[in-house]
Amino acid sequence: MQNADVVPQTRRSVMASQAKSKLNIPDLQRSAIGTFAPIQREFNRLFDELGNGWSHLTQFELTPRTDMTETKEAVTLTMELPGMTRDDLTIEVEDHVLTVSGEKRSETETEKDNYRISERSYGAVCRSVTLPTSVKEDKIKATMADGVLTLVAPKDGSATTRTIPIQGGK
Length: 170
Prior knowledge:
The protein is an alpha+beta fold.
């Protein structure tokens, strides 16, 4: 009789441990899915891009590296645009949004004894920055040197900083 009592308890404990292990498997699956989902999305995006053909990958739009500093007197933007000249760019400002855009086309052709190489590339850049309302839009100055565009937007000094006190609740 004593053995009969032990066996059912053992079966119960085995069944309980199996039930617990079955519950842990979905947790691991959910964890793996959550971990690998971003990688799967990137692979899907890559293959979608490849499905559009190679020419789709050679035409791209870049967002140039931009540094923005602000002082009491002006806002200064510096953009890295290697290989571009001032003739390749357009600078516009509307409703305190400054937009720098442009495109660069490059074509090279090499002809030698029994072969010819013709290469073309195209790239567009676009960057928009919202300026503070205190900027004098008609006074913005732009300079370009060594592939670096510098924009200086002077302020009119009308902006003020106000501290707002925090009041207690009920």
